Amino acid sequence: MFERYDISPVTRLRPTPLRNTRFIADVHLGSLARSLRLLGFDTTWERDLADEAIIEIAGDERRIILTRDKGILKNGRVTHGYWLRSTDPMQQLEEVVRALDLTGGIEPYTRCMECNGELESAKRSKVVRAVPLQVFLVYRDFKRCKHCKRVYWRGSHLKRLDRIVERARSVGERPGYLDLAESGELAQRAADAWRHLEDCDLCARYCRINRLETIKGAVCRTGERAIVHSQGPHHGEERPLRGWKGSGTIFFSWCNLRCVHCQNWDISQKGLGRELDVEQLAELMLDLQVQGCHNINFVSPSHVVAQIIAAVEVAVRKGLRLPLVYNTGGYDSLEALRLLDGIIDIYMPDMQYGDAEKAHRFSHVRNYVKFNREAVREMHRQVGDLALDENGIALRGLLVRHLVLPENISGTDRVLEFIAREISSGTYVNLMDQYRPCYRADENPPLDRPITSREFSQAIAWADNLGLRRLDRRLSPAP
Ligand code: SF4
After folding, report:
1. What atom in ligand 1 is closest to the CA of residue 208?
2. In this structure, which of 41, 102, 118, 235 has its CB flanked by the most CB atoms within 10 Å?
């Protein structure tokens, strides 16, 4: 059942969810209104309705306003609405179905496309005067609108309508970036993101340097070109990502964190790898797709968001169709995440710490908890809880990783409490027990030892007590 409100970037949350999904579309959205009726959604639309009338009807009949005009949604009396980005009617339909999670409520051919009345079965003998003789002779099943009495039958025109219905039903199975590519927005985002490199705010470090000219002052030591350490199908990720064909990982070199216990320190802090331009990065994605991977998994992507978006735009033109995974240390800026809205299908952030002081001490990063929590909130707003297909493969949503550290340096109880109370108790969480001292951990006790089974059991108990039931439990407790 639809209980989500999204009129972002004008977003309002109201205390009372709408129990029935009913719409009112503004005067410019006649085609969208007809298509929603085709899918069975009660959608009011009239050619001449003024904004005031739309707002009044929406309030009286508890309808969600669909509009291309942000001004309507800024009215204080509007409680539920969605602002459409697309201008193409088919893309608008897909956008609404995706954003408001409507696929489960589709009941095609139950509502009149012309007047929004409900359709009912009609006896053949009762429609003899209402349809052409050839139609009457050929067809046996008819429906009639209870309101305007228009008669419907499965004529040749239904093929076109069937295609619209099928496309709407498959929305949940299609990566969102395909819609953005078709509307031209993906290319626009790529250009916008590239401009951010000139005064870089693309991660929570906010170095504000021009990376097109220098890497001096860039914590991530990365300029115009991404540096890639390796790529390939990965069979060690969480099951919804690895499936049976592997997750198509691309490991980026350098990182915006400086963890003293990093297990990939030679990649993240020494920068081992090769520089790739956007075209080459796109080719890596396409190769992983050819190899049959379930998704493209960007590992340590925060500092190369602009390069990723540009490469995705190229790869889509060459046939990329896989879901995209943003596999991040969780120190991301809202500026970067907004650029990724609709492009990334699966966000997989670390929530490494529940205490900013510990984050500063062991990962040399300021305000980690604040930025990390803001980022996770935004990620969840964009994609919701993790959705799986019938084979258990991730399609879209949020998957949080948390590595349990000795003596609860990681603040596991605080992190889990935040997830359960402020994100969703349906969050898919990988509570990881595999910590082993690496890099400079020996100089930073208590990071100089693995965790105990008691420490991990305590972490599991916290999750259970908080009602977090979607735990990835592929790993057994540490010895
Ligand atoms: S991506 Fe982050 S670390 Fe790199 S220059 Fe930009 S703000 Fe700094």
Report:
1. 7
2. 41
